[in-house]
Amino acid sequence: MRGTEIAFAGRSNVGKSSLINSLTGRKALARTSRTPGRTQELIFFQGPQDLVLVDMPGYGYAAASKEKKKAWTGLIHAFLQGRANLARIYLLIDARHGLKDTDEPIFATLDRAAMNYQFVLTKADQVKPAELETRLGEVQAALAKHPAAFPQVLATSAHSGGGLPELRAAIVRLCRERR
């Protein structure tokens, strides 16, 4: 464990790998797929100045056996335990679908572990502005129930680049605070 780790978590096919690719400006750094559940392990990407990005397996529906899903769920829980250099988990929510029942157990797990996490809406370019505002309001309201959640919600689009400067700035601030 070295450097400042920033992890990206969320339901399968929420756009974790696409967001990592867009943040880094590399089209194929993190492997993307249309099939849910392709990322089945923790994938670490070394960035500049001791920054480490972590692409986590998705939760919810996945094209994988129950045994495999159970194994990578255990892996995620083990990763979250005692990870002193994990600065924040960005919990990605698809702006087209909003919060789902499958999200709540993850929020509870992160709250119990006292992990600092922040909600990020992905695919914001694929919804109308009024719908995006509704989603942002729903997620903001959900924050009140989760003590470990960072109070600001970000909306991003890996496709259009919307919200990426704000997310990059948040990551830079985290890294500076950790030095």
Please outline the helices and strands:
Elements lengths: L3 E7 L5 H9 L18 E4 L4 E5 L10 H15 L5 E9 L9 H9 L4 E6 L6 H15 L10 E2 L8 H15 L1
Task: Kindly summarize this structure in a few lines.
The chain has helices at 16-24, 66-80, 104-112, 129-143, 164-178; strands at 4-10, 43-46, 51-55, 86-94, 117-122, 154-155. With 179 residues, the protein is an alpha/beta fold.
Overview of the molecule:
This protein has 179 residues and is an alpha/beta fold. It has five helices and six strands; from the N terminus they run E-H-E-E-H-E-H-E-H-E-H. It has helices spanning 16-24, 66-80, 104-112, 129-143, 164-178, and strands spanning 4-10, 43-46, 51-55, 86-94, 117-122, 154-155. The protein has a six-stranded mixed β-sheet with strand order 2-3-1-4-5-6, sandwiched between helices. The model has no long low-confidence stretch (mean pLDDT 84).
